[in-house]
Amino acid sequence: GGTLETRFPRLFGLTLEQETSVAEMCSLGWGVGEEGWRWRRRLFVWEEGLFEECCLLLANELDKWRWLPDFDGVYSVSSAYYWLTHQAPMDPSSHKDVVWNKLVPLKVSLFMWCLLNNRLPTKDDLIRREILDGDSALCSGACCKEETFSHFFLRM
């Protein structure tokens, strides 16, 4: 397993196809001497050995999905939850291409924008804007915690 960049960093640094998808490489051919590989320069003899090893791995190994946040590469709800709750805070502007995608319904885009910018009316937000009084801060889910953005969506 692993990516070309991690398994064969020397070859990755020399290829002109660093942004090419696996599907595109398959259509161009990625065996020795095929068009899928374009190099910045001719490979040295020892690099050709690396390349042959890489092609051998590609020919003999099945492609499969791996869940990168988990050590074993297996997705589970608990690993996804752990990954989501232990992330550094995200910059909302870094997701504008996903949020404002033309294929996503406008109401979903608006909800995601509000979610990422902490603009949804949780109880702590309504208290801060003086719409609710301070006595109403607890979550209505009977968990006796203050209803904040992170508690409401991530149960923290």
UniProtKB/TrEMBL annotation:
The segment(s) forming the Reverse transcriptase zinc-binding domain are 75-154
Q: Which Pfam families match?
A: zf-RVT
What name appears for this protein in its UniProt entry? Putative non-LTR retroelement reverse transcriptase related protein
Q: Which domain of life is it from?
A: Eukaryota
Q: Which GO terms describe its molecular function?
A: RNA-directed DNA polymerase activity
User: What organism is this sequence from?
Assistant: Trifolium medium
Keywords from UniProt, A to Z, are: Nucleotidyltransferase, RNA-directed DNA polymerase, Transferase
